[in-house]
Amino acid sequence: MDGTVYEFERLPMATQRPVPAAARRAGGGPSGALVGVIRNPRSHRNKGHAPEMAERPDVITRTPRTREELARDLVEMAGMGIAMLAVDGGDGTVRDVLTCGASCFGENWPRMIVLPKGKTNALAVDLGLPNHWSLAEALDAARRGPGVERRPVVVNGAGANGGSLVGFFLGAGIFTTATNEGQVAHRYGAFNSFAVGLTAVSGILQGLFGTGSRGWRGITPIKLFLGEEAREVRHSQYGPPETRYAILVSTLNDFPLGIKPFGKQPDGLKYLLVDYPLRRVVALAPALLAGWEGALLGRLGVHRGHAQEAIFDVGDKFILDGEAFPAGRYRLTLGPKLNFVAP
Questions:
Q1: Can you spell out the DSSP letters for 121-182?
Q2: What does the pLDDT read at residue 42?
Q3: Domain 169-320 classified CATH 2.30.30?
Q4: Domain boundaries 21-150, CATH class
Q5: Single pTM value for the model
Q6: Which end of the chain is least crowded, N or C, by CB within 10 Å?
Q7: What is the pLDDT of residues 213-247, one digit of tens each?
Q8: Residue 28 forms beta bridges with which residues?
């Protein structure tokens, strides 16, 4: 629904059996290897436009309306032996494709193409894609270069939250508020980096001058445990020890407007954890988002780091690539190595 963040009551469950590699036939057509296209007709820049290159026999286009249809379409494409899989939509569409495709592609995904047609396209920014990148341009780029490798974040729930998600950018606490504010910006015609900028400015002003303990100054029950030994990220002296102001986790390197929330962390599950909305911390937000690092940050309850796996415990909903999922305890791991076509 326009102007809102969709909220799930639980994580999706795998509904399809894996397609064994031996069962995937080598697909090809008159123009070369088969290309599968998953198109989201509700994505911002797809509305009112016809699918690209749908008339070509080597381009298989599907427009699923539900996640069940998406899972079936991906199983079909895996069985056809597609060489490339194009995701025609925004970050949420990429998340849904990776989540539904995990059971049929496993560790052996085709080459990936992202056509950035959504309201937010953070993955496209990280890949260095232009705002308007056509399927034809992507296929030309695929012939010219080897592409770039990225690994998504896998979110596994337990108990009532059983199931799994695969995406690239997870956040909770104030990030949930920021995501809702971003939807307001979308309603007024602000998208991509401009929407990020408007939301950041609004958040800084409200965090600096706001009062109370809700909204932009609210705190949330959040804990983060790192590595196989589940070592908890320490809490500073500021705020209740079981709560945090914000958490971000991602495997991406580059973000809209050039922001660097994780500083210079190496590859892996990078995280930013902020304990409490101290006005000194909020005032430092521009420098923090520009990648500034210093001993002062740790003393003020700002933590950065990376891990290969983590346990994420949250007492309120969290956001993964633009949509909300329920509170609970989740295991975060690195997903399969994916090769993305890039200019």
A1: -HHHHHHT--SS--HHHHHHHHHH---EEE--EEEEE-GGG-EEEEESEEEEEHHHHHHHHH
A2: 77
A3: no
A4: alpha beta
A5: 0.86
A6: N
A7: 566 788 999 999 999 999 999 999 999 999 999 99
A8: 33
